[in-house]
Specification:
4-stranded antiparallel β-sheet; two-stranded antiparallel sheet; 8 strands; about 25% helix; about 25% strand; elongated
């Protein structure tokens, strides 16, 4: 646990019963909840309630997200392990799907399309369809499984998915983007 002197780390006197909130961080450090909000002031409750479902953190590690079980939820899990499943559902929302492909192509011009397709009875797989380098116009070239693509591609696919499907504004925290993205792609992503 951690406590801060209130207000302003003890630099001046505060009320006898200061406002407080208990923030519980998940063991995987990918989510948190705010509880035990005590105060007549609604600011701690407002901040805790407003931020609880609006922060999404991405770590600088290789995500093993090339294949996943097909599920019903369109919400991406914190470790992005269900990315194939949620991308499989994305064409059902044409506006979000179009924005998704546009942003991916802007960050990675060599990508023509992202394809999520069912494999087997309950599994989905992501393939990257590269642009045909022989053509002057965008056109499909070779297919590459996401599992054989660079770390940066899976990270960006997950980040862009969160961005285009969020119903409310989200705070996205990216840990060490320079460790998995080329500087040009990181600049376009931001």
């Amino acid at each position: 646990g951690w406590n801060s002197k209130y207000p302003s780390h003890g630099l001046f006197e505060g009320p006898a019963n200061p406002p407080s909130v208990l923030v519980n961080v998940n063991a995987d450090r990918q989510g948190w909840t705010a509880t035990d909000i005590t105060s007549g002031d609604s600011l701690p409750g407002f901040i805790a309630g407003g931020l609880e479902n609006s922060i999404y953190g991405f770590r600088a590690e290789r995500l093993n997200v090339g294949e996943s079980a097909i599920g019903d939820s369109a919400l991406l899990l914190p470790d992005a392990s269900n990315l194939p499943s949620v991308l499989l559902q994305l064409p059902g929302s044409p506006g979000a799907h179009d924005r998704y492909l546009t942003l991916i192509r802007e960050i990675f011009p060599s990508i023509y399309r992202i394809s999520a397709r069912p494999i087997g009875s309950n599994m989905a797989k992501i393939e990257i369809i590269m642009n045909d380098s022989e053509s002057d116009q965008p056109s499909p070239g070779i297919n590459v499984p996401l599992s054989e693509s660079g770390t940066g591609i899976s990270q960006v696919l997950a980040m862009v998915y969160v961005t285009v499907t969020a119903e409310t504004p989200r705070i996205i925290i990216i840990d060490e983007p320079n460790s998995f993205l080329h500087p040009g792609a990181a600049k376009k992503l931001l």
